[in-house]
Design goal:
With 169 residues, the chain is α/β, with parallel strands linked by helices. The chain is built from six helices and five strands.
Length: 169
Amino acid sequence: MIINLDYKLTDLAREIGLLLIKHKLSLGVVESATGGLVSNAITNIPGCSAYFPGSVTSYSNGIKQSLLGVSARTLSEQGAVSPETACQMALGGRQLLGTDICLSDTGIAGPGGETPCKPVGLFYLGLSTLKGVRVFEHHFTGSREEIKYQAAVAALDMLRGYLKDMSGG
């Protein structure tokens, strides 16, 4: 079963790599709750250095602030798991990594960490491009590992959709 899960991520990453090369775009990734899973999928593709200069796994709020420029006010008022944080992470990551596109994720993988308003499985995925920033809310279920996997797939699928739209379908 693990092989099938990895294969799905690898398929997405391979297709994204081809699209990034086609459009001559670079990609950065800033992850929180996925813990590097998205970056791992991307770097499993030979030749990814042509479009992927690097990533940041920003698990702590301090790293989100100091490296990615997420404001203390956002973290205090909205929380680390919020659309505002995902947006600022994606923007800050694109600037820090010097890329055309940056993916971000922040969420609650569980089994703990939930609040009355933010359940386990809640994720915000950000996509910063030259055209602006989009943030999408997702709700995943399962074990911690299953939730992280689903979030990584959703992030890569979101990016694939954006790149395919650039290609006209």
